[in-house]
Amino acid sequence: MTIEINGTPHDRTPLPGQCLRTYLREEGCFGVKKGCDAGDCGACTVHVDGTPVHSCVYPAFRAQGRSVTTIEGLAGPSGLHPVQQSFLDAQGFQCGFCTAGMIMTTAALTDDQRADLPRSLKGNLCRCTGYRAITDAVNGGSPAVCPAEGAAVGSSLGAPAGPQVVTGTARYTFDLDVPGLLHLKVLRSPHAHARILSVDTSAALAVPGVEAVLTHKDAPDRLFSTAQHENEAEDPYDTRVLDEVVRFIGQRVAAVVATSEAAAEEGVRRLRVEYEVLPAVIDPALAMLPGAPLVHGDKGIAEGIVRANANVVGELHAGIGDVEAGFAAADAVYEATFRTPRVQHAALETHGAVGWLDDDDRLVIRSSTQTPFLTRRAVSRLFGLSRDRVRVVAGRVGGGFGGKQEMLVEDLVAMAVLRTGRPVKWEYTRSEQFTAATTRHPFVITVKAGARVDGLITALQLTVLVNTGAYGNHGASVMHHGCHETVAVYRCANIRTDAHTVYTNTVPAGAFRGYGLGQVTFAVEQVLDELARMIGMDPVTFREINVVRPGDDLTAPGAHVPDLGIASYGLDQCLDRIRAASSTTDTAPDGWLVGEGMAIAMIAAGPPGGHFADATVTLLPDGRYELAVGTAEFGNGSTTVHVQIVADELRTTPDRVLVRQSDTDVVGHDTGAFASTGVVVAGEAVLRACRALRARILAAAERGPSEIRCLTADSVAGISLATIAPLSGSGHFDGTPRSVAFNAQWFRVAVDPDTGELRILRSVHSADAGTVMNPLQLRGQIEGGVAQAIGATLAEHVDVDEAGQVTTTTFRQYHLPTVADVPETEVHFARTTDAIGPLGAKSMSESPYNPVSPALGNALRDALGFRLTDLPYTADRIWQAIQDHRP
Amino acid sequence: MQVPAPFEYERATSVDQAIGLLERLGSSARLVAGGHSLLPMMKLRLANFEYLIDINDLHAELGYIRLSDDEVRIGAMTRHRELLESDVLASVLPIFSDAERVIADPIVRNRGTLGGSLCQADPSEDLSAVCTTLDASCVIRGPGGAERVVTMEEFHVGPYETAVADNEILTEIRIPRKSFRTGSAYAKVERRAGDWAVVSAGAAVWLDEGRIVDARVGLAAVGPNTTGIPEISAALRGHEPGESLYELAGAIAARSCDPVTDTRGSADYKRHLADELTRRTLRKAVERARS
Ligand SMILES: Cc1cc2nc3c(=O)[nH]c(=O)nc-3n(C[C@H](O)[C@H](O)[C@H](O)COP(=O)(O)OP(=O)(O)OC[C@H]3O[C@@H](n4cnc5c(N)ncnc54)[C@H](O)[C@@H]3O)c2cc1C
Ligand code: FES
Ligand code: FES
């Protein structure tokens, strides 16, 4: 019996146990995605005889004799299906990994269902957009923008990859057919801390199809950090590809490489490992106590660990002014301790990579990464290969949020390729994503602050404990960053910070949108809110009195790279918007408690210590331009902005700009798509490349660099561009100096005292991003950041039990916000032009996240009359707190 | 690990043929209806079977909603979507559409079945709570066409365990109708829309001349099985409905349930919700019975 796929009969019999999703992908339908493999996310939605189904929980056999439509088959002969067109028009996607499923579900909705999207679209999860753009798409977006020559910057140009995203033809990490591919699976540690005494591989090797088993004996005897930074000294070298000692439940013990996933898994099940179980420390508060088990007792300063004998990876003890005198001068002092939990990035595309040797025997790794160039550097060093013998490429990346600023898979894939000489693929399952990728760093933050009745903050004191888990990747940097902009945004003469990042035998934390700012902002902004209440001042005025102003130095305790300054200032405009929000009205259900709250946040555009980008723009013989740039695209939209810059600088239209990107072969270097640098660093390199090329084009027509007017899309001073092509220009930017961007968030909430349910009645966000390069996209970034933070504030938590085991391992247990859970957020932009950023732009990718949870905390405080200090604010906790505060 | 163990696949052509297959293959085989509970468990290797017998083609035989004077009969293969969209159910047993509106999403509802829901016997499963509330009985068919009828209490042996033997199929649910004014309602507190219940409650009341002749409350997610609470029925019978009665019922619900603290909430919170939702659904059910 055959299965008809998009009108064509397919005869191949499904494998026993195969689900329709893998069958369809094996038949070449790469548009059918895997987000969870358990019926929870909708990314795999296809139609069977016209009815949408989750193909991951649909036995492939059941499709025999039926007709299956995937995203690839949705468009008719006359062009895109109307739903595809409206997703394209409304730009109802960012990374696009959820888009095929969204479109397939939407295409089958009845009118009644369309009218009730919160209920009818809730089976499709999106981690990027915050759903507003998707809702607009479902309701029929307004047509796409086609800017004229020289008018691209500032327009809402759609993402260049849009047409591929909505047709399922965009190629993500695993969307390629590699003949002879082997599959890799790992055995993970069942112990929080143990020494591996022996690994018996014989039974695994006897499984038909198993080609190799890799253990710590095969791994290079070199240490590295999974964290990827330009400046390698930022992270301790405490990790091995496969280690003899395992330090958290879920750490790699051994890998099995086989001709099929099933054989590799069977091989893993047959490995016999003998462990010597070691004492473990799970609670970060206990990690620094004398006698606590040491996580990396065998290492020290040489590996970049400050005090390995006390589990301290990094610490900061510094002050400015005199806090005691500051508190003495205060009329009101408030102190509280706040806790933020582990949260998972939950990008819909899991971690993974495919590696092979190319025709020149070069090692090629195709990975879901934000840092191809740094990963190349790390892989080449681990395996003693020169850099030109390694190529790292990223396809389209299905969401990152910082989680992919990490080398979690490429090292092992490289090792397997080098060992077998064959192509090897390793794709994390959703459960591995929870147990063995990284999480947000859990923080405990105590803030004490004092203010005078006239509103002046007299002292600020921070005591911070960061749990980095079993490895120190990003641990110290997240702590330093978290303790910087959060206080530097205030003019305060007396500040004291004492912070530690400690190891525990738990799943490692890593980079995550906001990079520590979200956690510390959560505490600082709530303490300031309480102070404002104590002195009887409204929170906006209180901020206005204390925030930094143009011309101020940005100061915070500790040594800081001095290249950060205020190169444009829109925080005052942001605060004006927040004040205006407060004068609106909303109705809440009877008996519910209503409250309002706000918070602000500042973020540096780029990391301290350099972030490098190269770009090359080439005029092609057909008059089009090709841009080569290193930074990866995972839905953050930097590619769109780069195209806009090229189009305007070279006076052409965006459709005549081709982009090659995120491939170590296309440019010299790029530090990576992290630290909010896609526009301000890579974009600046693109701008410089454009200007270099423009000068050469004008010179070719014997015109000076200022005679830009003689350049058109086809000619320069009347000479056809074709006659002077090819011609290239290159640009480089080293990421310094750096400016700052600002965000402010306001909420009105209502709480049902009988169930603890919290409902957001109104959400307003204002942002100072400098020149708005692309309003639609910027709005999308902000909405997505706000939505992600709402999830982390109200619902999400990765739980780790006393033994150190992660217990939230599927989307059924870990709650991503659905369309029903995210309110629409009003987004306002300040009008500013930055003196540093390209064409006046600043960054706006991480920062919308940061003021959200304290603003919700403050609104909840306003509604309840008391403050909740521990995230997340789930209904049961709110209800419990109400009970505990009953007189 | 998300590759399920390899399994053989058979499509059932009739109920008795499926029972024949089950008898031959024994405990190595499992029926698959919608597959929305079974296949994720197999992928996570929480369950392994060598044979899957797909009963979707039995929809013609087992997918129905039949109303008679003294009962409503619903076939085990009736899908969530059909329960949601049925006008008959909406008019006589609105508790079904209340519940279906908050179960999963349209795609899951397109395939998931009443039988699969009940047989999965997940303690937070909504339709089991509905059937418990309605005092439903379950028709189980075995080899040689033998049929037995069990109550919901007998049906649910424990979490994920039912009275259905390896060689049997659940074919039908029967819900008694009484000749009184009747109303029913369902409510659920979920962590997010379409999620499994933190706690949910169903209520049904039968009124005669303004007094409660009978009332039933069923709770999900507050104990090993979806629970019916006879003490509530006893306390309400013969009384005129009103706030103080709902409060009493709520208090009994809170006292009688047995929740555990987990990621969905603390035991105290769930106990409180059992109280709150019992009151809310009884109030609604009475309102409907009166209108
Ligand atoms: C994302 C998601 C969200 C969900 N949310 C909810 C929710 O909020 N509330 C809720 O109640 N449910 C929820 N569900 C579960 C959903 O209702 C399932 O469809 C249902 O639990 C199982 O029905 P099924 O037909 O898919 O059963 P299957 O998965 O096919 O079968 C389940 C079990 O029942 C057995 N079985 C099935 N039919 C019979 C029969 N006739 N006789 C004997 N044994 C049988 C099978 O062998 C299997 O062991 C959710 C599911 C998903 C995927
Ligand atoms: S991959 Fe199928 S629902 Fe998530
Ligand atoms: S665009 Fe929806 S998950 Fe990325």
UniProtKB/TrEMBL annotation, chain A:
InterPro entries, per the entry: 2Fe-2S-bd, 2Fe-2S-bd_dom_sf, 2Fe-2S_ferredoxin-like_sf, 2Fe-2S_ferredoxin-type, 2Fe2S_fd_BS, Ald_Oxase/Xan_DH_a/b, Ald_Oxase/Xan_DH_a/b_sf, Ald_Oxase/xanthine_DH-like
Domain annotation 2Fe-2S ferredoxin-type: ranges: 1-74
One MF term in the entry's GO annotations: iron ion binding
Pfam families assigned: Ald_Xan_dh_C, Fer2, Fer2_2, MoCoBD_1, MoCoBD_2
Keyword Iron (UniProt): yes
Domain of life: Bacteria
UniProt keyword list: Iron, Metal-binding, Oxidoreductase
Keyword Cell cycle: no
Record family assignment: Belongs to the xanthine dehydrogenase family.
Protein name: CO or xanthine dehydrogenase, Mo-binding subunit
Species in which this protein is naturally found: Actinoplanes philippinensis
UniProtKB/TrEMBL annotation, chain B:
SMART domains named among the record's database cross-references: CO_deh_flav_C
UniProt keyword annotation of Oxidoreductase present: yes
Domain of life: Bacteria
Stretches assigned to the FAD-binding PCMH-type domain: 2-180
Gene Ontology MF terms in the entry: FAD binding; oxidoreductase activity
InterPro entries: CO_DH_flav_C, CO_DH_flav_C_dom_sf, Diverse_Substr_Oxidored, FAD-bd_PCMH, FAD-bd_PCMH-like_sf, FAD-bd_PCMH_sub1, FAD-bd_PCMH_sub2, Mopterin_DH_FAD-bd
UniProt keyword list: FAD, Flavoprotein, Oxidoreductase
Pfam families: CO_deh_flav_C, FAD_binding_5
Keyword check for Transport: no
Protein name, as recorded: Carbon-monoxide dehydrogenase medium subunit
